[in-house]
Amino acid sequence: MPTARPEPGMPTPPGRRPRKAAAPRRPLTQEAIVETAIRVLDAEGLEAVTMRRVAQELGTGPASLYAHVSGKDELRELMLDRVAADIMLPVPDPERWQEQLKDLAREIRRVYVSHRDIAMVSMGLIPTGPHLLDVAEAQLALMRAGGVPKKIAAMAVDTLGMFLDADAVEGTIYYAKTPAGEDPHAFFEEYFGQFKEYFAALPADRYPVLTGMVKELTDADDDGRFEFGLDLIVRGIASYVEDGERPG
């Protein structure tokens, strides 16, 4: 005859082990899946984000995730869109549109680099998520408020996106080279110093311009190069502004 279980609220009878209360399981939702995937991304990088790994972190099987996400590609797009929700968007001011466009680019860069190599997802991706579309809308609104023609703004938003993606990805690649426990800035000062010496030692008869510009080629830091590229792009966009061109 089976032994009856103690009723709720009753003490455990002598000679028996108390039953551990099962931890309440968090309902499996798309939001929970995406949040978990971003935690894996932040800790280990994009390659570590697989359906199996996310399911493991959630204490379930991979098959259960497919009821909420169609696969790894959609999961990565959802992750990127969730990350983009943290980007602060400006209210367009026609008198300051160029500086606002630069500020928005800096904000996108800040958010992307805070999530390791998430920018890899953005490369080659046509945005469809609501937060990514909010960012694109803001960029286009700034350019149109400044009088940038529609055709130019449409191409420029793509060019600016490629620049931001490439910068964020390159930064991730470089910082991955930093040995564990070392200061990245000190490491890269020494790392690029080696290339400065290498370029200076190149045969001047074969590379006269390059060897004559070693200091200029190796002086700028990561932020300086980013700011130069950003200024170059925004100035180029502004050169297409036409009088009387406004949203419409």
UniProtKB/TrEMBL annotation:
Residues 1-26 are annotated as: Disordered. Residues 50-69 bind DNA. SUPFAM superfamilies: Homeodomain-like (SSF46689), Tetracyclin repressor-like, C-terminal domain (SSF48498). Keywords: DNA-binding, Repressor, Transcription, Transcription regulation. This is TetR/AcrR family transcriptional regulator. InterPro entries: Homeodomain-like_sf (IPR009057), HTH-type_TetR-like_transc_reg (IPR050109), HTH_TetR (IPR001647), Repressor_TetR_C (IPR004111), Tet_transcr_reg_TetR (IPR003012), Tet_transcr_reg_TetR-rel_C_sf (IPR036271). Pfam families: TetR_C_1 (PF02909), TetR_N (PF00440). It comes from the Bacteria. Residues 27-87 form the HTH tetR-type domain. It comes from Actinomadura monticuli.
